[in-house]
Amino acid sequence: MPTAAAIVEFVRESPVPLDRRAIARHFNVKGDARVALKRLLREMADRGDIDLARGRKIAATGQLPEIMPLHVIGLDEDGELLAAPLSWPDDQPQPSILLLPQARRAKAVGIGDRVLGRLERRGDNSYEARVIRAIDRAPLQVIGVFYTTKAGAGQIQPTDRKSKSAYEVAKADRGGAEDGDLVVADVLAGTRFGLKKAVITERFASLDDPRSISLLCIREADIPDRFPAPAIAAAEAAKPVALGKREDLRGIPLVTIDGADARDFDDAVWAAPDPDDSNPGGWLLLVAIADVAHYVHHDSALDREAQKRGNSVYFPDRVVPMLPEALSNGLCSLRPDEDRACMAVEMTLDRHGIKRRHRFIRGLMRSAARLTYEQAQQAHDQGQAVAGEAGLIPALFGAFQALNQARVQRGALEIELPERQIIIGDAGDITGIGSRQRLDSHRLIEEFMVLANVAAAETLEKQRQICMYRVHDQPAADKVENLREFLEGLTFKLSRGQVIRPHHFNQLLSKAADSPHAAMVNELVLRAQSQAVYSPENIGHFGLGLTKYAHFTSPIRRYADLIVHRALIAGLKLGDGGHGAEDFEQFNDVAAHISMTERRAANAERSANDRFTARFLADRVGSDVRGRVTSVTRFGLFVCLDGTGADGLIPIATLPDDYYDHDEMRHQLVGRSNGWCFSLGDVVEARLSAVDPGIGRLTLKLISGGKKHSGARPPRRSSRRPAQRRKHKPATRRR
User: Fold this and answer.
1) What is the pTM for the complete model shown?
2) Which residues contact 340 (CB under 8 A, 6 or more apart)?
């Protein structure tokens, strides 16, 4: 019987996925041993050592399937067609796929076409593909920047980084577009050679206007940003609620704590010491959330639009809300000194931050104060009263300390990475870029919300109500192993031979905290994690170290929370606004959809930040910058620049003259002849050589950095690529 390691090595070396018979033949497994082999392969797949591909075939982890839809994106240096998967995460290196020549009688495919291809792996993340058939011709539309060439021809340069070629626009098809306009165009059928042709159907902004950046990202991601008339009418017709059968919470000094630029306030908090003698050092907490379910009923015009959007999307200069403004910034926003309908949870903690009991309430509240994070922190640091209550802030922070103690005890993942903040002036211009300050007041609200979310999940399980869980799976085995092997080169160790838990990562992060590698280790640990999603099936939340978790605290901006509110209302019989029978029928589909809209929003927000940053740096082309290598790919080095947190690319062609091997396991580019080695985490100095705000790209030219490779060990998995001849010097500080 072969070992798991031997099977993984054999599968990795195969250019195509293998079936079980091929593996049995290769290792001469016969008779009853085939049953044991089948069991071993199933266990390896469950651990993430191998992937189960189409038709029960077995592939290396991360390998593309043998047959998949592709998008023809451009030509290589030899004029051969290049393709890419139709869907691919922006934060992962895109595989290189070369389309092999077609049969003479086959209908030619060209740039922009979509095909079904049969792939064979030819190297690390590189493939060759034969066209099985065309799926459809060119995509229906393209979004890009219109400009006129020196020869007077009109062209559209796509703003999608994956699009390699421009589109030609005839004079009669320009629709009045001028240089620098952002346009939407219909793509016309074309041939294999020459530029595709397009007809401009809409001009929606000018690239010169900084406010166009978020509009461009909204269009590219196909984010709905216009409410249908029935939804707007329903929101504007909504009225404030009366007390009725609700519990009156207006005598409790609840306060909201949000960012300085926040406009929708969907949560308010209160705390006090528990007067119960049986709970010494304990705390009483109240978390009140806007009662969105009262206004947005199942299958109404508002509900259909909210489900379609899935969540609000936040850009530096605007918000695309899930609900119309009459609700999101009006009746569902917990503004000070205004009566608001709420769903609240009352919780009791012991002195160690462990929840002893909780109770859900449908109430009427009145916010006593609107605080920013900075104001709440200042009130705590300086002993200031809030809303006329001298004891409120000490109680809030006291309860937070207890909750934080419980968080540490259960081993929740503690990754610390700076968050980029883009500051926009009144005229829409970018006035600065920095990192958001991380205060205890931020952590306070996070811990209060986490506890309320846990209470919601526990209650729905107890009531036997279907629940939209927020789940986070443990990291894939291959990602953990790659992380482990890389860290060993930095003298950091990650435990082997046991089920990985968050506290194992925390031990690693603690050891790296005072080292020059702290930021890099935090980033690598984050990359190793699975992505959190919504699901009606509970598998727990790995990162938070929780067995039951659901989103309850932000129904203004997340549809998942609205679903949880409705389930609580129905299960606890808290009045109108619970779910309907239809909710159960498509629950899995809704979970998949809102998980998708969350990813869509995150990608759009990241794209906007990249473009705003590129615009901010556009007048600094030619200046020298310093940064840290955050990603090593077969085509170059991505560098995070000091100060702005911007990401720039040093193309491999600009590295010192050599033939470079890409060591994916060790995150290195290693020169074969001159021995230069460029590694993840290296500090480099570079010159900002080009900026493209349209796609948010910064191109850098290396000045100094890297080190001489100590030699001896060959890369385990490599893609080799030559670099153009360039002069280079060792890392030195420029003055």
Assistant:
1) 0.78
2) 240, 290, 291, 331, 332, 333, 334, 364, 365, 366, 367
Instruction: Give the separation between CA 716 and CA 324, rounded to whole angstroms.
Output: 54
**Strands 167-169 vs 196-206: parallel, antiparallel or unpaired:** parallel
- Would you say domain 621-722 falls under CATH 2.60.120.10? no
Task: Please state at what angle helix 373-382 crosses helix 392-410, rounded to 10 degrees.
Answer: 100
DSSP 496-513: -SS---HHHHHHHHHHHT
What's the pLDDT tens digit per position in 410-425?
999 999 888 888 999 8
For domain 67-136, the CATH class is: mainly beta
Fold agreement (141-208, 621-722): yes
Q: Which of 13-22, 34-43, 447-456, 548-557 has the lowest mean pLDDT?
A: 13-22
Which has the higher per-residue pLDDT, 656 or 238? 238
Q: What is the DSSP string of 190-253?
A: --SSS-EEEEEEEEEEETTSTTHHHHHHHHHHT---S--HHHHHHHHH--PPP-TTSEE-TTS-
**Which pair of structure tokens corresponds to residue 257?**
């704590």
Please give the pLDDT value at position 55: 55
pLDDT at 718: 42
Nearest to 256 by CA among 492, 553, 55, 507: 553
What CATH number should be reported for the domain whose range is 141-208? Answer: 2.40.50
Give the residue extent of every domain in the chain. Answer: 4-60, 67-136, 141-208, 229-471+536-604, 480-527, 621-722
pLDDT of residue 581: 56
Q: Measure the CA dihedral 366/372/376/378, to 10°.
A: -140
